[in-house]
Design a protein that fits this description.
This protein has six helices and 18 strands. The protein is α/β, with parallel strands linked by helices.
Length: about 475
């Protein structure tokens, strides 16, 4: 970019977004003291921030910040500080900040010289969204623990591609945080330490029965492609004579007082767990307000969570000790889950008995790529009387046509039914006659399916049948 741009001292907006071939900004932009917006979003070839960015104290919008150290080997130790100090005086930033690290894996330089977040914690900012990409350190700086005071208005946090990171600061007391997304963090095993949390709780409220703030506003939680993640809480080690095994569920009920030892998410409504094969338990003991749950390539024990979650919630509802912990526990519903997607559980042959029994509010159920699933009849589908949409897709061993125990007659509210790639289904199940509310039936790629029965077109509410070939 031409150096002459530094002469535009009255410039307020500089938008270089999507300049994919821009590799370097030769100009010193420190003279652009009136600049309020600097947008480098999508400048994929740019590996460091323009010189002088740290002097643009009127900046309000800086959606993309690049931490580049591609030339670190030629710099003195003191000069490592340069790329990181650009945010220290930018106290007016608001909106979205996207921090991208460019092949930076030197923990000592990152922590000793300070990544951008260490500088923006000097005083409160009005940032709403913080995204950090391609971070190569083992942990984020300890000063990130101060986010609740430095960035109290954060609504969204996304941490993507943390290749080596093993420890994260707690975001639990960010009062405005509504969405937390972690993607591709292969070295991370736990999100929180129960020991540290309980220690902090005892210091802040040594005699109080009410837990300190724990994600008070979080509505959406996404954990994706974290192959070594074992649980949300890292618990205590067992005592002498019992080895050094870590208790993976430190939130479980305490045997002495029947109270949960750690808190739950009070407003979480959307939970997505993608490709976390070692995660065998729920992120919290109680998820009574979750409305959408997506399980993709998870351990089969996570499916049992549906049944266990329901039982735990019922226990909480009936146990007066929970009411003393929080007033909301006294009125917990069995479940508010409305949408459930279970996908890519390649070895699951059957669901735990009655695992859907407590999902009384469920309206949409999607079962996709359960290659070894053989039956649905004992899963508790008969309790899903409010189910409106059912999708069964790519279940190679499932034969619905011969499953006489399948409780179709209980699905009184079912309106949409989609069956796809169920190769063993040779005929339309006779139980479909009971689907009196069915409006839309879609059957695709069921190669053995014979002619459709005449009664199918007589279903009282059926408006549309969609097939990928002529079955009549």
């Amino acid at each position: 970019m031409a150096a002459d741009i530094s002469k535009l001292t009255n410039l307020r907006h500089l938008d270089l977004s999507r300049c994919r071939k821009l590799t370097h900004v030769a100009a010193d932009i420190s003279s652009l003291t009136n600049l309020e917006l600097l947008d480098l979003t999508g400048c994929s070839s740019l590996d460091q921030m323009p010189s002088g960015t740290e002097k643009l104290t009127k900046l309000r919008t800086l959606p993309w910040f690049i931490v580049g150290m591609s030339n670190a080997s030629s710099l003195s130790p003191e000069s490592h500080c340069g790329p990181f100090t650009d945010l220290k005086d930018l106290n007016g930033l608001r909106g979205r900040l996207h921090v991208s690290f460019d092949n930076y894996e030197d923990d000592e330089a990152i922590m000793g010289k300070g990544i951008p977040m260490m500088k923006i914690t000097r005083q409160p900012h009005d940032l709403k969204e913080l995204v950090i990409l391609n971070y190569g350190g083992l942990r984020l700086p300890s000063s990130m623990d101060q986010l609740s005071s430095a960035l109290p208005n954060l609504v969204v946090i996304k941490l993507w591609s943390f290749s080596r990171c093993q420890h994260l600061p707690s975001f639990a007391q960010l009062v405005s945080l509504r969405k937390l997304s972690l993607y591709d963090c292969p070295s991370l095993e736990y999100m929180e330490s129960s020991i540290g949390y309980k220690s902090a709780a005892s210091r802040s409220q040594p005699s109080a029965s009410v837990m300190p703030l724990f994600f008070p506003s979080l509505e959406n939680l996404s954990l994706s492609f974290m192959p070594n993640m074992k649980g949300w809480w890292k618990g205590e080690e067992r005592g002498e004579g019992q080895g050094s095994e870590i208790v993976d569920q430190p939130w479980q009920l305490d045997a002495t007082n029947s109270q949960p030892r750690l808190p739950s998410f009070p407003k979480l409504s959307h939970l997505q767990i993608w490709s976390c094969p070692n995660l065998t338990c729920s992120p919290a003991p109680l998820l009574p307000y979750v409305e959408e749950l997506v399980l993709y390539k998870v351990d089969e024990k996570m499916v049992s969570m549906l049944k266990g979650q329901m039982a735990t919630t019922v226990a909480a509802h009936e146990n007066s000790s929970f009411s003393s912990l929080s007033p909301s526990f006294s009125t917990l519903p069995v479940s508010n889950l409305k949408t459930l997607k279970i996908t890519y559980l390649m070895t699951l042959e059957s669901f735990p008995r009655d695992c859907f029994k407590g999902l009384l509010s469920l309206q949409s159920l999607c079962i996709f790529r359960l290659d070894q699933l053989r039956s649905l009849s004992s899963s508790g589908l008969e309790h899903l009387t409010g189910l409106r949409e059912l999708t069964i897709w790519s279940c190679k061993e499932l034969d619905l046509s011969d499953d006489e125990m399948m409780p179709w007659e209980a699905l009184k509210s079912l309106r949409h039914l989609w069956l796809r790639r169920i190769p063993k289904m040779s005929s339309v199940p006779a139980g479909f006659q009971h689907l009196t509310a069915l409006e839309y039936l879609r059957i695709w790629e069921c190669g053995k399916l014979g002619a459709l029965p005449e009664w199918l077109t007589s279903l009282p509410s059926l408006q549309r049948i969609e097939m990928d070939k002529d079955y009549i």
